[in-house]
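The protein record filed below.
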Amino acid sequence: MKVLILGGTGVISSQISQQLLAAGHEVTVFNRGSKSLPDAGQYEWIVGSKADGETFQRQMAGRRFDAVIDMISFNEPDARLTVETFRGRVPQLIFCSTGAAYKRPFRTTPVKEEAEALFDDPAFPYAYDKARMELYLQSRIREENLAVTIIRPSLTYGVGGANLGVLRQNYNIVHRIRQGLPLVMFGDGRLPWSFTFAPDLAKAFVGAVGNERTYGQAYHATSEENRVWDDLYGEWGQILGAEPVIVHLPTDLLLKADPDLFAHLHYEKSYAGLFDNAKIKRDIPDFQISLTLRDGLRMMLDWYEAEGHTLDEGKMRLEDELTAIHSRWSREMEELELS
């Protein structure tokens, strides 16, 4: 099949591109042209930006594809442009949404798609805008019977990503564990979560292409390994051969320390992240999780060391300051207890 990926070189979309190619599809990638892919010559490349809607529509005029996978729509106007550009010319549109688009607290645990409402608090724009995008797409499904498939990843890590850890600091975690420096964890670290890796998630998108069972449907696609948040750093310690020093801080205090950096903890990750994959396995039988948390972190470490990653000095200072505050507070509590 001829598949167009809007994006195609990101953490998740690069895995989708490669898996589509391996499955024998003819793949066209549309993006700004700032990144490449392995075996780049096997793809058709279109350089552009959806931010310039008129130019985007001219570039796509007359083009025929069997499916379009949109990885770069983050709100209703983005999705509307994709729908209006390809309506009537492409049999299937597949959109990447997010598990953050579910309203918290959940109604079900593990989460079931059909039982949940969508996020409705504009205070967390990422989740709110994705939810609004989905509401628009669902209206097109109802009113036009448009063949739209929506995939909702939860927290997903992968090569090229900069979102690992509480501070989204990536390589800093490895450095701090090796140096015996403390790491900040939100809450008590015991909240259940399923950590997913991009090579597994990509199977959901590839399995949806041309799959009529997925038309008009929304799915989450996550790991099924039941872990808690402390395990993220504990597994790093096992891989590196050093026990991590984990400092637990309340989420509301972290939010006050840096509202932009820690909003994802307050609005999304303060609730258990366990998802029921029964629906996607029913319609996409090839969706099977193969990477454990340790497997995925080893993959990340291989990437860090192969590319010689550097530290995020700003986040290093912030983590030092936060753990120092915790240390002072702990001493004061001990003194209060002794008095």
